[in-house]
Specification:
By secondary structure, the chain is of the alpha+beta class. 47% of the residues lie in helices and 19% in strands. It has 17 helices and 15 strands. Strands 9-10-14-12-11-15 form a six-stranded antiparallel β-barrel. Helix 2 crosses helix 3 and helix 7 crosses helix 9.
Length: 570
C-alpha cells in the first residue's frame, strides 16, 4: 500500500524559496495549478479534498473548497468575494488564496505550460525505492472488482478471520514439527515453489487494498513491483483512500494483512491434512512465511500497513514526521532549556493529548528499522559471506545503507540545533553521554565464526568443505568444529568433530550446507578435509561452524566489511 497526504489546515506545505521574492499579483486572478482536482466529501461530516497529481491529497473545509472550485483565472478577488457571498470579503479571499498558494496549488506566471505527465512505467521514489508499473488501474479496475465480488466485505472478512484463527490453532498444535521444518534446509525446488506462492500472495495482498478501496467508492491507482530498500516487493497505489473517513482508511490499510493471514491459515490447515512429508512441509513453511510477513507488516513504527492503519485510525496524517519533529523539539529543548512547543506547534503537528507519547513514538520510529535490518543481517551474514565477494558486497551494501539511515537521523537531530543557543553545561553533558555510549559499544564482544559444510559419503566418511574467499581462514589438523543443521530460520546443533587432514587440493565445492538450501548443482571455490566424529550424524548433509572467536564489535565490523576488500591490495 502506498500514498501520501498533506493536511492543509494542519501542515501547509512551505512555499518554494523563490516565492518570497515574487509579488502576489498572480493571486489577483488566480487559477488552480494544472492537474489539481476538487473532490466533495464521501460522506456527511467528512472534509473536502484537493488532489494534486496521483499521490498528494489536501483535506480542507467546505468554504475553502468553494473558493478553490471557482479559481479559473477569470475572476479577480473582488469578483470572487461577491460570487461567494457573505461572510466572504476580499480580505478573507486573499487569506484563502495565500493558504492555497503556500501549498503550491495556485498557478504562477513562471510555471509555464503544464509538464507532460510521465507515461513511463519506471519510477524512482526517494530514498531507495524503484517502482515498475505492471497495471495502470483506476475507475475501470474498481468497477471490475465490484462486479466480480462474490460476497460482501464483511462476509469475506469473517471468513478470512476464521481461516486465520483455525490455522493458528493448527500451527500451535504442530509447533514441534514447525520447529523441525524451520531447522532444516529446504530443496531448491521447494524454495522456488514457496517464493512463487509468496509472490502470488503478495499480489493478492495488494489487490486486497484495492478491493476494499473500490468497495468504499475510491479509485485504486497503479499496481506493480518494486525494489524496496534492496528487497523485492509489490505495491498498489491507494492514495485515493484519503478521500474516505478515518475508519475506512484504516480498514483499507489492514485489508492486505488480512489477506496474508487468511493465506497463512489456509496453508496451515492444508498442511495438517497433508501430514508429514514434502507437501505438508512446503505448506507449513509457506504458512509460516506469510504469518511472519503479516506480523512485520503490523509493526507501526515503519512505513508499512500497520503504520498507515494507525495513522488513519488516529486521523493524524504525517504521524511519523510529526513524531520525529516532536522528538527533535524535545532534543533541542533538552540542550537549550526551552519548554516551548516550537517546531511541532508551528506546523500544527501535535495536539494536547499526544504531547506525552509523540516523542516516544518518534524514538521507536528511529530504532525499529535499525533493529529489523540488524536482525535480518545477523541471521544471514555467515551464509552471505560464504558466497565470496558477491555475498560480501551484498552484505556490505546493506550495512552501508543502515549506516546511512543512522547518520541521517543523527544529522537531523544536529540540524535541529541551528539558530538556537544550547547551554554549555548541557552540551558537555551530552558529549559525555555520547562518549560513554561509544566506549561501551567498543567494549561489546560478539562471537564470530567461519561457515563450512559437511557431508557423509557413501563409505561412511564425514568430509568438511570450506569455501575460499574473503572470509576464509586456514583450516589445520586438530581444529575442533561444530556440526549444525541450519534451516531458513533456526539452527540445531548436531555435535562436534575434529579436522584430521586435507582431503585434496582446492576445487569446486557444492553450496549445500553453506546456505540452508539443497543446491549441489551450484558450486563455489573451496577445499575438502576429512573429519573425525564420535557418532555419524543422522543428517547426511549440514552446516559447520569453524574458528569461533569473541572479538570487539568495532574489530568484528572491520574484519567483516572492510578487511576482505583490502586483502587483494595487501
Amino acid at each position: 500500500m502506498s500514498g501520501r497526504t498533506g493536511l492543509l489546515r494542519r501542515r501547509p506545505t512551505a512555499p518554494a524559496p523563490a516565492a518570497a521574492a515574487d509579488s502576489t499579483s498572480h493571486l489577483e486572478r488566480a487559477r488552480l495549478t494544472d492537474g489539481v482536482q476538487v473532490h466533495p466529501p464521501v460522506a456527511d461530516g467528512e472534509p473536502w479534498v484537493l488532489q494534486r497529481g496521483e499521490h498528494q491529497y489536501f483535506r480542507i473545509g467546505a468554504d475553502l473548497a468553494s473558493l478553490a472550485d471557482r479559481l479559473d483565472g477569470a475572476h479577480d478577488v473582488e469578483e470572487l468575494a461577491d460570487g461567494l457571498g457573505r461572510p466572504w470579503t476580499p480580505e478573507t479571499v486573499r487569506q484563502g488564496l495565500q493558504a492555497l498558494d503556500k501549498a503550491q496549488l495556485v498557478a504562477r506566471p513562471q510555471d509555464g505550460p503544464p509538464p507532460r505527465r510521465s507515461t513511463g512505467r519506471f519510477k524512482y521514489v526517494p530514498p531507495l525505492t524503484l517502482q515498475f508499473t505492471v497495471l495502470r488501474s483506476g475507475v475501470g479496475l474498481a468497477r471490475l472488482i465490484n462486479r466480480l465480488r462474490l460476497a460482501s466485505p464483511r462476509t469475506l472478512g469473517a471468513s478470512v478471520a476464521l481461516l486465520a484463527v483455525t490455522g493458528a490453532f493448527v500451527l500451535v498444535g504442530r509447533s514441534a514439527h514447525a520447529v523441525e521444518v524451520l531447522s532444516r534446509p529446504v530443496s531448491l525446488t521447494m524454495l522456488l515453489v514457496i517464493l512463487g506462492a509468496v509472490s502470488v500472495t503478495t499480489v493478492a495482498h495488494e489487490l486486497g487494498h484495492a478491493c476494499l478501496l473500490a468497495h468504499y467508492g475510491g479509485r485504486p491507482g497503479r499496481l506493480g513491483v518494486m525494489f524496496f530498500y534492496l528487497s523485492p516487493a509489490m505495491f498498489c497505489d491507494v492514495s485515493d483512500a484519503w478521500r474516505l473517513n478515518h475508519r475506512q482508511r484504516a480498514h483499507v490499510a489492514m485489508a492486505g494483512i488480512f489477506v496474508q493471514l487468511g493465506a497463512s491459515g489456509a496453508a496451515a490447515c492444508a498442511s495438517g491434512l497433508a501430514g508429514d512429508g514434502s507437501a505438508g512441509d512446503m505448506l507449513m513453511l509457506f504458512s509460516l512465511v506469510n504469518a511472519a510477513a503479516a506480523v512485520i507488516n503490523l509493526v507501526p513504527f515503519v512505513k508499512l500497513d500497520g503504520y498507515i492503519a494507525l495513522m488513519s485510525y488516529l486521523d493524524h496524517p504525517n504521524l511519523r514526521a510529526d513524531a520525529l519533529s516532536s522528538l527533535r523539539e524535545r532534543f533541542t529543548g533538552l540542550l537549550t532549556g526551552a519548554t516551548g512547543r516550537g517546531e511541532a506547534t508551528a506546523r500544527g503537528g501535535s495536539r494536547d493529548g499526544e504531547a506525552a507519547w509523540l516523542p516516544w513514538f518518534g524514538v521507536a520510529c528511529l530504532v525499529t528499522p535499525v533493529l529489523l535490518v540488524v536482525r535480518g543481517l545477523g541471521q544471514w551474514l555467515d551464509a552471505l559471506l560464504s558466497l565470496g565477494y558477491f555475498g560480501l558486497t551484498l552484505s556490505t551494501s546493506i550495512a552501508g545503507l543502515l549506516a546511512v539511515v543512522v547518520g541521517k537521523a543523527l544529522f537531523g537531530l544536529a540540524r535541529s540545533l541551528r539558530g538556537t543557543r544550547p547551554r554549555p553545561l548541557r552540551v558537555l553533558g551530552l558529549a559525555l553521554v555520547i562518549a560513554a555510549v561509544v566506549f561501551g559499544v567498543s567494549r561489546v564482544h560478539v562471537t564470530t565464526t567461519q561457515i563450512g559444510a559437511y557431508r557423509v559419503t557413501d563409505g561412511g566418511q564425514v568430509v568438511l568443505t570450506v569455501p575460499t574467499g574473503p572470509d576464509g581462514r586456514d583450516v589445520r589438523a586438530g581444529d575442533r568444529v561444530e556440526l549444525v543443521e541450519a534451516g531458513l530460520i533456526l539452527r540445531r546443533p548436531l555435535g562436534e568433530a575434529t579436522v584430521v587432514a586435507p582431503l585434496r587440493g582446492e576445487s569446486m565445492v557444492p553450496l549445500t550446507g553453506l546456505v540452508p538450501v539443497d543446491a549441489d548443482q551450484v558450486k563455489v571455490p573451496g577445499r575438502w578435509y576429512t573429519l573425525r566424529v564420535q557418532d555419524i550424524p543422522k543428517a547426511q548433509e549440514g552446516s559447520v561452524r569453524l574458528h569461533p572467536r569473541s572479538v570487539s564489535l568495532p574489530r568484528w565490523a572491520y574484519e567483516r566489511f572492510v578487511q576482505p576488500f583490502a586483502a587483494p591490495f595487501n
